Amino acid sequence: MKPTLEIFSQGEEIVCGQIADTNAAWLSQQAVQLGFLVTRHTAVGDKLDDLVGLLKEIAERADCCLCTGGLGPTTDDLTAQAVAEAFGLPLVFDTVAFAQIQDFFTRRQRVMPDSNRKQALLPKGSQRLDNALGTAPGFSVQAGRCWFAFMPGVPSEMRHLFAERILPTLSTRFALTPDRLITLKTIGIGESAIQELLRPITLPEGVAIGYRASVGEVQIKLLFPHNYPEDLLNRFTDAIAAPLGDKVFAVDDSNTGHCSDLVGIIDALMGQRQLRLAVLETVSRGCLGSLCPTADWLLSSAYYQGVASGDTVCDGNETVQSLAADLIASGADCALVQAFTDNKENFAVRGQSTGINIYLLTPDASHLAQYRLSGPSGHKQQQAALLSLDVLRRYLQGCLA
Amino acid sequence: MKPTLEIFSQGEEIVCGQIADTNAAWLSQQAVQLGFLVTRHTAVGDKLDDLVGLLKEIAERADCCLCTGGLGPTTDDLTAQAVAEAFGLPLVFDTVAFAQIQDFFTRRQRVMPDSNRKQALLPKGSQRLDNALGTAPGFSVQAGRCWFAFMPGVPSEMRHLFAERILPTLSTRFALTPDRLITLKTIGIGESAIQELLRPITLPEGVAIGYRASVGEVQIKLLFPHNYPEDLLNRFTDAIAAPLGDKVFAVDDSNTGHCSDLVGIIDALMGQRQLRLAVLETVSRGCLGSLCPTADWLLSSAYYQGVASGDTVCDGNETVQSLAADLIASGADCALVQAFTDNKENFAVRGQSTGINIYLLTPDASHLAQYRLSGPSGHKQQQAALLSLDVLRRYLQGCLA
User: Complex ipTM, two decimals?
Assistant: First the structure.
């Protein structure tokens, strides 16, 4: 039996919907990967009674609870007080925490406001979790059957505290048997087409399959039980990948924790080959360039109204080819040119699709890929950028004939 | 006293952190604007006992509950069954719902799978909420002190059902006295600088002020009680706006529901003036273009490596000015050119800032704006794009001398 875990968030900005609770999603992902059974998320605002009641409930119900928010210096930051009331642990002034808070301000050459003194008050018997990035220390406490860890709501501080102070404790406190998640990332093929291709494959006992689609990418998630035999895992992963061919651009493994993305893969390949790219972003309109904010290999990216659109391109792609040749002449090793093939006027229409040609000119050959884009204009733009990068990826990986 | 409202989400993908619960945030915003006191969000997965227990709790605790997810055709979609068990309302086959589901498939020339029959089973005595966008009808039911509305988890279907079926009911079922939210949107100034400028202003009794910062934008939120006198509201809003000058690019009012954004404002102004813009995106690298996917007025946007960076630009901006002149010569009415002024190598370094010059050449004059960018490279890029667009906005609104 996996230990159960709940996520608890404090903050009016979450309860009132000013921000989505991305901390809860991030912490849940970590917990699932560690081998917890995540059972519930709860968010409440700054009413002390709500907080106290909820903490008592969770202490009876879950084995572990990861909590964010409510550790700040202002009067609506009530988490420590709520813990004190819920579990009868009076607040105690922590001199080490106070010295850290003072030091935080000293290093920034600022005077510590009196209100920050409150952040050094921790429930009696709790363990302080030092926070190198902000003024609020976290703390952990065992209450009832549940081990609680309290973190600040600022995402960067929360992630820091989780990685540095909580993660090491979780693996010693709990007997965790994490499932293993293999994620196949695909581009250029839709979710239903993938399901159709995978239909003949029988799922082994105990293995689960799931799909997750976003703009320009569909992920296939294979969940294997803890200690599933390595050879069987590899054989089944290969069987899933085979019918998808070069649509699969990455296979991630939760055991390594590495998360691949298309731009990162191209970054590495372009670096190895020492190639430089020029792009005419007729359809993606700058989106390709903006996806690569620090890429040395991107020599230029440009959008010009009225270029490479519509009729001229349907006439044998001569315009596109000559535009690509111009880009190579400007000093690039490879050139990508996008062109509308039909229904350019549908680009801004949510329910209508638009045809696109993506032309890649390289030192050894030229390639043309054709797609249809759909969804709102921002999605079409992003699809065009990612599909163009993917043509380049397949060239670099030797997948283009 | 405002009626209390809770948000309840069903779905393993939320509890396991595969997606952030943006439905909960959106529904909370709507509820707050309508005049509810939102007290809690809860998300649970597909365990029937959890669902039943939670529904019973909420029925005792809240006046209204907006629920999403769990209405699909698969066995882990348990919401209707959980309502039936929690409140003793056996599931009844709804022939109208069934006809709608069949019709959904007929219109798409597909055969209805048997599993979808389940979606026509609704708790006895509940009111069906017709869903024009998907197969799952929603339903509403009164249980204990709480009026529950159940919607699909697909965001587009959820929003449709909320707007068409739930919103009209809420305003008749509940005595709502909504606060009025005035949002001043600023660009080119940080949150602490704003707070410093606003420090001398006294907040009137009953009015609350809040801040929300995102990349390139800081919002000032003024919350006025229901029926706050119009003249006093306007006077206070003006007092807040005055010291911020042309940093304020929009003032939104929850009474109208309109939500302004910088690109939309520029869209309208460029349309009125019939001007066309060319941009050299040295720093934003395509991000400006990608923010304007359907703008007719964007004649071109381009990024070239090595152009308008570093030393040449510090020498009196001659390079930047001549590049802008080239863009005008290419057929644009206005040209924006970005150049690094110093520390170009810091662009990719998260903790370091980079200087940027933004040069605008227009039919009547030329303008230079200088900023420092900070944060990760993607943020610097986005700031550069938004600040460039803002120079154009201020020119179009006559704010540039």
Answer: 0.81
